[in-house]
Amino acid sequence: MKKFISRSIIILICCFLVIVAFALWSTNTPTLTADQRALNTPDLIQKGSYLATLGDCAACHTKPDAPMYSGGAAIKSPIGIIYPVNITPDKQNGIGEYTLNDFARAVRNGIRKDGVTLYPAMPYPSYSRLSDDDIKALFAYFQYGVKADASANQPNEIAWPLSIRWPVAIWRKIYAPDAIAFNASHYPDDQIARGAYIVEGLGHCGTCHTPRAITLQEKGLDKRVPTYLAGGQIIDGWFTPSLHNDTSGLENWTAKDIAATLQFGRNDKSVVIGKPMNDVVEYSSSQWTERDRQAVAAYLKSLPITNPEISSSGVTATNKESISQKTDVAFLYQTSCASCHGVQGEGKSQIFPALAGNNTVLSPNPQTFIRLVLEGYDVPVFDTNLLPMRMPHFHDRLTDQQIADIITYTRNSWGNQASAVSAEQVKLGRDQLNDK
User: Fold this and answer.
1) Of 104, 158, 310, 348, which has the fewest beta carbons less than 10 angstroms from its beta carbon?
2) Who's near 406: CB < 8 A, 6+ residues apart?
């Protein structure tokens, strides 16, 4: 009897594991019907090439000075270092053996040809809404328009037990949607719908600009969730801003400002800050069609007015009055900053960013602002008609307290209103800079 019970328990456990395995393997990805050889056409390959640029695929899957898509540089994730794989049509190390359906499953569901779930550094939760036609075009490009390269894939540097892959499949089933058809009718017009398809889908803007839960999933994958694109992540040491129409986001930006930034990395008011976004502009958005840049701008301006989670609107700075009234602090600003940014923080259009109403200045997390003052910053030039700009560093010219006072003064002058910055916060930024 005991043996019968033991065997029954073992059988039940095995059945349970089979059911779980089947649930993890199964997806609702529709089967794509197409003669793969018929996809090898110049028009489809060209379309796929543009879509790959729209999605900035090269940013992750290409290392500097390496063949395109032959494998990427390290991504420092919270669980360890992930190395994006070779996605050229090489049959041994790339995706040369992938069928159209294998490719669709990997892109939209994060499941490799061998059934292993990809880490969500691959933004398949966003890609889940890609249309069948776009999947076919991307497949055509990567199979027939990209040169095969045999570069071996580099193993990820993730410590055990986080390196175990089957829990990632459970994460995928809980947090990543199956392939879903994008519904343009949910948006007020065709232009905003096109912008939504790019931002929420192939552009995967939420991957960086949406806060994440402790389990690392994005807190929302589209505009129906208030925290979607609310900012708040720290990427490569830079604080990602809100893309909502709030004080720390795009409230003071027009659609024209957004489109200009996507094309040139700057507008009349501001510039892109940090290497991650610089790369997006250089390798992706500067090469989009003007129609797509305008569509993204229109969509972003249609987002909520108020950021419910990370907004800095209405935050009163500690010691605001005492700081702004200090003559020595005002003089320090005038001697260190005003020659470029203006006496009233007005800046110079297309040359020096305005500080009045600047979303980096008003960010609820001042880490990026502190880093800029300490480290300086070279604004990349994506158009030869624009002047290069250099923000000088002050880490060896001003003390932690002086930098804290200048930043607090700037965050609370000319109509700005944001929290005070302490010398301790600047010291932490300085220590991080020294470690770097």
Assistant:
1) 348
2) 329, 332, 333, 336, 337, 373, 398
Q: Which two tokens stand for residue 114?
A: 């061998």
List, in order, residues 6 or more apart from 415 with CB less than 8 Å away. 356, 357
Report the alpha-carbon distance of residue 224 to residue 283 in Å, rounded: 29
Within 13 Å and on the Cβ side, how many CA atoms surround 272?
A: 23
Helices 290-301 and 255-264 pack at an angle, to 10 degrees, of 130
Torsions phi, psi for 77 (to 5 deg): -90, 165
Beta bridge partners of 212: 218
CB-based contacts of 372, cutoff 8 Å, min separation 6: 273, 360, 391
User: 84: closest CA among 56, 40, 122?
Assistant: 122
Assess contact for 386 and 264: CB atoms under 8 A.
yes
Q: Which two tokens stand for residue 432?
A: 């991080």
How far is the C-alpha of 134 from the C-alpha of 193, rounded, in Å?
16
Which two structure tokens, joined as six digits, stand for 218? 């994005």
Let me know how long the chain is: 436
Phi, psi at residue 377, to the nearest 5°? -165, 130
Contact indicator for 132, 139 with CB cutoff of 8 Å: no
Cα–Cα distance list, 194 to 167, 185, 301, 366 (Å): 35, 11, 13, 33
Taking the model in full, what pTM does it have?
Answer: 0.85
Q: How far is Cα 196 from Cα 405, in angstroms, rounded to an integer? A: 41
What is the tally of helices (H) and strands (E) in the chain?
Answer: 18, 6
Q: Residues 58-78: pLDDT tens digits?
A: 999 999 999 999 999 899 999
Give the residue among 328, 326, 351 at the shortest CA–CA distance from 341: 351
In this structure, of 47-51, 307-311, 414-418, the range with the lowest mean pLDDT score is 307-311
Alpha-helix runs per DSSP H in 216-349? 255-264, 275-283, 290-301, 320-324, 327-336, 338-341
Contact 88, 144 (CB under 8 A): no
- Residue 337 CA to residue 352 CA, distance in Å, equals 11
Closest CA to 133 of 47, 193, 69: 47
3-state helix, strand, coil in the chain (%, to 5): 45, 5, 50
Using the structure block, give the residue that is written with the tokens 């300085």. 430
**366-410 pLDDT tens trace:** 999 999 999 998 887 777 677 778 899 999 999 999 999 999 999
